[in-house]
Design a protein that fits this description.
The structure is a single chain. The protein is α/β, with parallel strands linked by helices. It folds into two domains: about 150 residues, HAD superfamily/HAD-like (Rossmann fold); about 70 residues, no CATH class. About 45% of the residues lie in helices and about 10% in strands. The chain is built from eleven helices and six strands. A six-stranded parallel sheet has the order 3-2-1-4-5-6, with helices on both faces. It is elongated. It starts with 8 loop residues before the first strand and ends in a 5-residue tail after the last helix.
């Protein structure tokens, strides 16, 4: 492939470009909040959520559809209530993260404006309701969401979808992600030219163990621990840390 500093770049979205935990209060559980609004037992909603998540992420189900099923199954027919308030907690902090990204993120994207920029995200429909209003969206040339293409990382088909959208060959691009859903390994299997593990958000939150961080880094060609390191890698090239 060409040099990293001239290649098109594909970013993961959540926990790579934006992090809902920048806004989420400590101890907040979105399923608990939704269950309370819906008037159902938390364990009941959690069970249905976990069962439905693969279909939600691939756009074969919807958050509001799930809420209607749970409400109906618990004696609260959807026709007697507005489902939207129950769905709102599921995307509240995703909305804020998308609408108010960190300044370092916008600066990074602005520094890449001469190159094609793509976003490839596993998400459910409520996650991305604020996407079109995000300042990130204005700086991205192509965005492919799992709900729209019915494919999810780490399946190769998800990477093929964004590459086709960008009109780019796999070995010509750089993929940047925090490594959730084994996306870094998937990018490598898809033949992506350079895979970068970006760790800042996870490191700040202490979300993953040292062992897991090392496992994710081992799936990538390069690792960046901060936005500054990531900008340097993408704009100047670099070697594996």
């Amino acid at each position: 492939m060409g040099e990293v500093k001239t290649a098109p770049v594909i970013f993961d979205l959540f926990h790579t470009l934006v992090d809902p935990d920048d806004f989420r209060p400590m101890g907040f559980c979105r399923l608990e909040a939704s269950a309370a609004v819906l008037g159902v037992d938390y364990a009941t909603l959690e069970s249905e959520w976990n069962r439905s998540l693969p279909e939600l992420v691939r756009g074969r189900d919807s958050v509001r559809g799930l809420m209607r099923r749970v409400a109906h199954g618990n004696g609260r027919p959807a026709r007697t209530m507005d489902i939207s308030p129950a769905a709102e907690p599921l995307g509240r902090y995703q909305d804020l993260a998308l609408l108010h990204p960190r300044r370092q993120v916008l600066a990074l994207l602005d520094s890449l404006e001469a190159r094609q920029i793509g976003v490839l995200s596993n998400c459910h429909d409520r996650d991305i309701e604020a996407w079109r209003r995000s300042p990130i969206a204005k700086r991205v040339d192509h965005a492919v969401f799992s709900t729209k293409v019915h494919e999810a990382k780490p399946d190769v088909a998800a990477y093929v979808a964004i590459l086709e959208e960008m009109g780019a060959a796999a070995d010509e691009v750089v993929f940047v992600g925090n490594g959730g859903d084994n996306e870094l390994a998937g990018a490598g299997i898809a033949g992506i030219g350079t895979v970068i593990h970006f760790a800042q958000f996870d490191d700040e939150r202490g979300r993953i163990s040292d062992v897991e961080r090392q496992r994710r880094s081992a799936q990538a060609d390069l690792t960046a621990a901060t936005f500054e390191e990531l900008a340097q890698l993408l704009n100047e090239g670099g070697v594996k840390y």
